[in-house]
């Protein structure tokens, strides 16, 4: 029995890619040195696919979705408002094409997206502070821990892959309404926490290459995505109200501080060098564990457009937000009391 353990570090635009490869079995003696091995596995899986642009897009999509979940609106709430809604976002930045097109590895996600429900509560500061100036201020907070699987999420449908995860986003927005003006100015802080787990297995042996030689492997794939981002947002909105209907356009700016990380693991049986269909004569297995992260020290701007319909103390609102490479939509139901 031959045991070979390779560990290496590659670099992605200033962020470290860690790659570990473990081989067990007699066929391991025919595997080239660590640089060729890492070149065959680490570079195609993460360097060419999960680029910094893709990781940044994944994180910023989650941030925009979190901000849109706040449902602060553009109208001054005179007392209290309770809301529940659902928010989705989608990015334009995509991961690059996969080298292993005939492998189940191609099922890994290639485009940033985020979605979750949220509950919000808005209060007029005049309810707490006896001041005419305080009545011009609203504070809105939202929070909703959400665990999901493939059956209850609309944005991750990956063939032959088990999907699960959790989202725990929250934030608070202060909004100021100048007297006798349709304008409002908001600022607030947000925390975006996301975890996504994907697992798949090969339904049949698939091809890969080692030092130019064709091999076949059969195994399982796991991916763990994690996002932890703190954000500060500032926006300005203008509200038009026509009876029971309102329109609220606006613009905003967000600064982000945190990270987005991805870890990919693959464990597979490998065929012999002499026969790509032979897995039995020299039983051997290979394990690959790759990890990279993108550190967010970024900002982005966005535009927003909200619509609202009011029926007594009940509001039905929707708000669309769009940045340069992402869009988000929220639908919420609110009750004023």
Structural account:
This protein has two helices and 14 strands; from the N terminus they run ββααββββββββββββ. It has 337 residues and is mainly beta. The chain has one domain: Lipocalin (Beta Barrel), CATH 2.40.128. Strands 3-4-5-6-7-9-11-12-13-14 form a ten-stranded antiparallel beta barrel. A hairpin with a 2-residue loop joins strand 8 (206-210) and strand 9.
What's this model, at a glance?
With 337 residues, this protein is mainly β.
* Largest β sheet strand count, sense and barrel closure: 10 strands, antiparallel, barrel
Portion of residues in beta strands equals: over 45%
The termini sit apart by: 73 Å
Q: Indicate the low-confidence ranges by residue numbers.
A: 1-14, 97-105
Supply the number of helical segments. Answer: 2
Q: Sketch the topology as an H/E string, one letter per element.
A: EEHHEEEEEEEEEEEE
The global form is elongated
- Give the C-alpha Rg: 25 Å
Write down the CATH class: Mainly Beta
**Widest sheet: strand order?**
3-4-5-6-7-9-11-12-13-14
Could you name the CATH topology?
Answer: Lipocalin
| Count of spatially separate domains | 1
CATH architecture: Beta Barrel
Helix content: under 10%
Question: What is the strand and helix layout of this fold?
Answer:
Blueprint: E1 3-12, E2 15-25, H1 34-47, H2 52-69, E3 80-94, E4 111-124, E5 137-149, E6 161-176, E7 183-201, E8 206-210, E9 213-238, E10 240-242, E11 245-270, E12 284-311, E13 314-322, E14 326-336
Antiparallel strand pairs: 1-2, 2-12, 3-4, 3-14, 4-5, 5-6, 6-7, 7-9, 8-9, 9-11, 10-11, 11-12, 12-13, 13-14
């Amino acid at each position: 029995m031959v045991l070979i353990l390779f560990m290496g570090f590659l670099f992605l635009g200033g962020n470290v890619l860690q790659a570990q490869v473990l081989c067990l079995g007699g066929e391991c003696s025919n595997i080239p040195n660590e640089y060729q091995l890492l070149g065959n596995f680490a570079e195609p899986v993460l360097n060419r696919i999960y680029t910094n642009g893709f990781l940044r897009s994944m994180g910023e999509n989650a941030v925009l979705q979190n901000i849109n979940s706040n449902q602060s609106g553009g109208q001054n709430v005179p007392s209290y408002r309770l809301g529940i809604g659902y928010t989705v976002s989608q990015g334009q930045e995509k991961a690059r094409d996969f080298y292993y097109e005939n492998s189940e590895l191609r099922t890994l996600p290639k485009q940033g997206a985020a979605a979750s429900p949220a509950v919000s509560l808005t209060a007029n500061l005049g309810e707490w502070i006896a001041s005419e100036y305080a009545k011009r201020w609203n504070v809105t907070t939202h929070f909703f821990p959400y665990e999901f699987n493939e059956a209850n999420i609309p944005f991750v449908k990956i063939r032959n892959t088990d999907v699960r995860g959790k989202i725990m986003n929250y934030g608070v927005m202060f909004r100021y309404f100048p007297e006798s003006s349709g304008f409002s100015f908001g600022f607030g802080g947000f925390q975006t926490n996301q975890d996504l787990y994907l697992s798949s297995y090969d339904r049949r042996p698939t091809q890969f290459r080692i030092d130019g030689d064709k091999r076949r492997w059969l195994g399982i794939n796991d991916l763990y995505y994690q996002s932890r981002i703190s954000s500060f947002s500032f926006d300005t909105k203008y509200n038009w109200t026509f009876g029971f209907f309102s329109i609220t356009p606006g613009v905003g700016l967000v600064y982000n501080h945190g990270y987005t990380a991805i870890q990919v693991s693959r464990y597979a049986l490998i065929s012999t060098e002499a026969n790509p269909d032979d897995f039995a004569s020299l039983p051997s297995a290979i394990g690959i564990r790759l990890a990279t992260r993108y550190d967010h020290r970024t900002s982005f701007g966005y535009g927003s457009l909200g619509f609202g319909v009011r029926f007594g103390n009940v509001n039905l609102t929707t708000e669309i937000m769009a940045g340069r490479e992402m869009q988000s939509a929220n639908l919420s139901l609110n009750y004023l009391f």
